[in-house]
Each structure stands twice: as structure tokens, then as C-alpha cells.
Amino acid sequence: MCGFVEIDGAGISKDQYLMTSAVLRPFLSDSYKSFYPAFGQEPNKTVDIIIEEEGTLKQVSATWWFDCSVKDDFLIVGPRTTFNARNLLSPYWSHSLRCKRAILLATGLGESKKVGKTKHQYYMSSGAVFILGVLYQKHSNGKYSCAVITRDTHPKMAPYHDKAFPCFLPTDDEFLKVWLDANIQQHESINYVLDNPTLYPTLNVQRVKTYKGKQAYSSFSPVVLTSDTAI
């Protein structure tokens, strides 16, 4: 995961909206937002994550960098690179993995790979909403910070990013209820998703100069990464 996610609500058709999980529909809008990690120790670089708190689903703004500390009403971004959570066996992530799981809605993301001495950036988009798994913490001042979960590289994604693979989540309501339930510390469906990285959305891949500008390289032929669940 290389640090760019977007949600383009205006690009979601009515049919796609109706196909979206009932759990997620209340959190969809027709607005556009893009998100970057808190590089440069910028706590205001946030993402909109969905969590369960006191039995209610809510969307909150969380600094996209798990390692944060409190100073008055603000967060101080720590030195540990934690916009991704990969080694979930580490005690560092254990509490959030049990009790503080969240989701991030997206329609596009950015990945990169070094080819020779050049960093190639790839913009990957879907015509529908997909879901990324997130771990978060709530700090004593009420602020949130988070990390997007990544897993081992996926063969379809490897040509464009071969170090890790975003943790895409299935979109069915029953799984999402389990994932978001703070009272469920372990569940076989959660273990299965984490242990079996799956490309749930179909993604259109284009090499770009910048993620936000999306200016494509004419020398790169667009590629379609078909969902692992496609029949």
C-alpha cells in the first residue's frame, strides 16, 4: 500500500449503489475525497473510517498514521512508519486487531514499484465501492489514528507493487457486521480473510505521473485486474 486512496461517490451509478452492502449505504455520498498518509508528521492528513462505538456504526476522521500521541486537543505523529499494518502477529497490533477493527470505503488507490532506478506509480480504480480493512485507536482526547492493513503480495498485483497487498474485505453484510463488532475478538471468518488475501474488486490499472492528477503515460497500456471472485 503506497499511500493514496480516493472515494468518488459521484462516479457510482444507481445500480452500483443498490448493489452496495446495506451496512455501507448510509455512509455513501456523491462527493469526492482523496486521502494521503501523515507523512511529514501532519496529523491533519486523515481518512474517513467506519467504526462501531457503543453498539452504533459511525464514520470518524482518523489520522492516517497509527503511531500518534496526545498533546492537548491535538495528536503528535510519531516516528514509527505505521500508515500500514502488516505484521499482525506483532503485539503492537494485537489490541486493535481484537477490538478496534474499522473499514475504509474507496473507489481507487495508488500503488508503486521501482523499475530500475525509476519509481513507477499506478492508479487503480473500480467502477464500484470496495472496502479496505483498517486498525485504529481512540486517544484520550477523543482523536483517532489508524493504519490500513496489508498482507503478503498478490500475484495479480505483484507487477505493480510486489512488497505488500492491501487487505480488501468482502462486501457481504454478515461479514462486515462481524468485522466491525468490537465485542468479537476472534472469528473464523476474520481469520480466513486475513490468511487468504483476495482481490475482491476488479481494478483498472494505469501508470500515472501523480495519483491525484492521474495524467497517464501513453506508453503504458491500461490493464484490468479481474476480481478473484469473478465467475
From TrEMBL:
One of its GO terms (biological process) is protein-DNA covalent cross-linking repair. Gene3D superfamilies: SOS response associated peptidase-like. Transmembrane segments: none annotated. GO terms for molecular function: single-stranded DNA binding. This is Abasic site processing protein.
